[in-house]
Every structure is written in C-alpha cells, then in structure tokens.
C-alpha cells in the first residue's frame, strides 16, 4: 500500500497550481472590471451634473429643464431642444454628446464584457456560498487551508461531512472556492471570522494553522464562543500538546508523530496499516469502522450488544464508552446500551447506518 498525497486525492497534482493561478487571475480580472465600471459610472454622473449646472448658469434654465435636456442628450432619444440654445449652450451640448454619450457607451460595453466573460456568474457563485454558510448546521470548521488543512478537508469530504474553511490567505481561499467549499476569508484567531463560519452551529473545529500560538488563540476563541463543540488542534512541538489541551482543545496532535507512526506501521506492520486504511475508507470500504452515538431516538437505545450483533453476522461492537467509566473493549453480549453511550462498531456501511438511525449509506 502506498501513501497518497492528500492534494492528489482531490485534484491531480499537475492541475493544482493551474487551478490556483486561474482563481487568482479571475479575482484580478473581476477587480479590474469593477474598477472600470465604477470609473465609467463616475464619469457619467460627473458629466450629467456638470452639464445640468452648465445649462442653469449659461442658459438660465430651471433645474427640471436642465435635467431633462441632459437626459435626452445622454440617452440619444432624438427629441428637440428644450429651449433655443445660445452659442455657449450648443458648445456645452456638443461636449456632453462627445464625452457623456461616449462614457455611457463605454460603460455599457464594459458591463457586457463583464457578463460575457462570466465574472457576473462568479459574483453570483460567491454570494451563493455566503448564503450557504449562513445556512450551515452540524458542519466542521477547518482553520488553515495549507497542506495539512487540505488533507483534513479531503478526509472529511470522504466521510460525507459538511465543511467550512477559514483562512486569511487569498490564494488558499480562491483554491478552496474552486473546489466548491464554503470559505470565510479572515483571521481565524478573531471571533468575527469564527462567527461568520457558523461556529455556534458547528459540530467541531480543527485548528491547523502554521504556528502553535495561532492554534492556541483559535482554540481559546472557539471554546469561548461555542463551549460544547469538539476541537482538535495541530501542534508543531511536543511541548505544545498539553498547552493546547489546557486552553480548550479536546485533542492536540503533532503531524510528525502521526506520520512517523504510520510510516513505522508500513515498515513493520504493513498488514495492520492496510487493514486500518481499509476500515477507515467510508467511500469504498465494504466493511468499515465507525463510531455511533446512542440517543433517545436511536434504534439501539435499551438493547443489548448481543441483540445488535445477532441481527447481522458482519456487525461487531468492539468498544463502548460510557460517562464515568473506562472504555470497554469487546463488551459482553449482555451489556445494555443507553442514551449517551458511544460505541465503536465494525460492519457494512448499511448496517452501521441502520443502528445509527440514519437509514442511508455514505454517498458512493
């Protein structure tokens, strides 16, 4: 079994840089089009106001007559003059026709180009993502969309989870948007960014920023806003593991230790590594390992382990976690499950969905 680059699992490695570059160029093009449109509108408004004042001063017309003359001139509707124009008034009208109408036509051309090249559709897509974020519920927030964050997002997507990415880097945010992910571009250490990502409605958060201090700030902010969510924090050094847990992280992990363990298993226990990978593959695995919570509405509430395993030979409860007790491995058939229990079971995805009460399999 070979270890696959997490980037390559989402997009081919050769196209990743191209996707990021296209996203950056699209952002630059959109900003350029928006500036040109604003300049055009500003020039038209300036011409209209200047001409209106000019007619009032030069011709002595009323404000309404002046505005009417400017309107019919800029729109080129072909109506006659409001009043007889003087020589200076005709010069003013000529300037309005040359500059005002030209500015209006230029603005129309820019808007048409903006629509034709798809930038308008891109704006709609971003507004759609913003509305999507406001409706997210029971999702996971990934703070930091670097290499590790990308791998975490990939694994969560493989399990059918909903994700919102928080990152301050425009290039990373643009790349996440190309993957169709809801994105909040901002500093994850600030409460406003976490609130914008819907942290109060989320199930959990991953702090995967580049430094331990940043991850500690994210953990503190997240825990203060949403005391009950699950938080996993990345640590660069072993000395930061306990500190991150002290500031509110449920779990803290060093990617080097996790990587070292996996590489060691591949060397010394390749079959164990292969079995773990196969049981963790919710997308393609025929037999998978899954954690199932027992709720009041759960079909396994009040039933014994033996009852559950007896319904299907492939289903096996291998661990039970109950508040105030140590984790029980291979609980006996006579153990009754109650609301609040957490079990780890192995079996077919459909059978695990049934005991979890979802009644549906992970999308394949």
Looking at this protein, list some descriptive labels.
14 helices, alpha/beta, disordered C terminus, 364 residues, disordered N terminus, 10 strands, four-stranded antiparallel beta sheet, six-stranded parallel beta sheet, single chain, 55% helix
Shape: elongated
Query: What separation lies between the terminal Cα atoms?
Result: 22 Å
Instruction: List the uncertain runs.
Output: 1-21, 360-364
Helix content: 40-55%
How much of the polypeptide forms β-strand, as a percent range? 5-15%
The ordered string of helix (H) and strand (E) elements is HHHHHEHEHEHEHEHEHHEHEEEH
The order of strands across the largest sheet is 3-2-1-4-5-6
Write the layout of secondary structure elements.
Layout lengths: L5 H5 L2 H46 L4 H12 L12 H30 L2 H17 L4 E4 L3 H12 L4 E5 L2 H9 L4 E3 L5 H6 L7 E4 L4 H14 L4 E5 L4 H8 L4 E3 L1 H14 L1 H11 L7 E6 L11 H7 L4 E6 L6 E2 L12 E6 L1 H8 L8
Parallel strand pairs: 1-2, 1-4, 2-3, 4-5, 5-6
Antiparallel strand pairs: 7-10, 8-9, 8-10
Helix pairs in contact: 2-3, 2-4, 2-7, 11-12
Short description:
The chain is of the alpha/beta class. Helices cover 55% and strands 12% of the residues. It is built from 14 helices and ten strands.
Report on the architecture of this protein.
By secondary structure, this protein is an alpha/beta fold. It is built from 14 helices and 10 strands. It has helices at residues 6-10, 13-58, 63-74, 87-116, 119-135, 147-158, 170-178, 191-196, 212-225, 239-246, 255-268, 270-280, 305-311, 349-356, and strands at 140-143, 163-167, 183-185, 204-207, 230-234, 251-253, 288-293, 316-321, 328-329, 342-347. The chain has a 6-stranded parallel sheet, with helices on both faces. It has a 4-stranded antiparallel sheet with strand order 7-10-8-9. Strand 1 (140-143), helix 6 (147-158) and strand 2 (163-167) form a beta-alpha-beta unit. Mean pLDDT is 81; it is low at 1-21 and 360-364.
């Amino acid at each position: 079994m070979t270890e696959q680059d997490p980037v390559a699992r989402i997009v081919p490695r050769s196209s990743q840089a191209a996707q990021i570059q296209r996203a950056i160029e699209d952002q630059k093009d959109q900003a350029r089009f928006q500036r040109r449109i604003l300049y055009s509108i500003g020039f038209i408004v300036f011409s209209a106001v200047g001409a209106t004042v000019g007619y009032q001063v030069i011709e002595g017309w009323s404000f309404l007559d002046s505005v009417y003359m400017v309107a019919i001139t800029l729109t080129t509707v072909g109506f006659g003059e409001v009043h007889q124009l003087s020589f200076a008034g005709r010069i003013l009208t000529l300037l309005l026709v040359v500059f005002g109408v030209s500015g209006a036509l230029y603005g129309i051309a820019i808007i048409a180009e903006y629509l034709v090249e798809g930038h308008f559709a891109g704006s709609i897509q971003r507004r759609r993502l913003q509305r999507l974020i406001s409706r997210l519920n029971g999702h996971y927030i990934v703070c930091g969309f670097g290499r590790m964050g990308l791998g975490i997002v990939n694994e969560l997507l493989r399990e059918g989870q909903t994700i919102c990415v928080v990152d301050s880097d425009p290039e990373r945010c643009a790349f996440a948007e190309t993957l169709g992910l809801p994105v909040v571009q901002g500093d994850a250490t600030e409460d406003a960014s976490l609130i914008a990502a819907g942290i109060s409605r989320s199930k959990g958060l991953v702090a995967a920023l580049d430094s331990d201090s940043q991850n500690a700030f994210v953990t503190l902010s997240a825990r203060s806003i949403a005391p009950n969510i699950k938080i996993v924090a990345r640590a660069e050094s072993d000395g930061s593991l306990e500190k991150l847990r002290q500031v509110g992280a449920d779990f803290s992990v060093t990617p080097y230790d996790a990587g070292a363990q996996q590489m060691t298993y591949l060397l010394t226990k390749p079959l164990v590594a292969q079995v773990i990978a196969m049981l963790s593959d919710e997308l393609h695995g025929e037999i998978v390992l899954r954690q199932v919570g027992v709720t009041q509405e759960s079909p396994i509430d009040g039933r014994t382990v033996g009852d559950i395993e007896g319904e299907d030979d492939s289903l096996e409860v291998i661990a039970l976690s109950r508040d105030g007790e140590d984790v029980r491995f291979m609980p006996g058939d006579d153990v009754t499950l109650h609301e609040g229990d957490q079990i780890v079971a192995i079996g077919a995805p459909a059978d695990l969905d049934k005991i979890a009460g979802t009644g549906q399999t992970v999308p394949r």
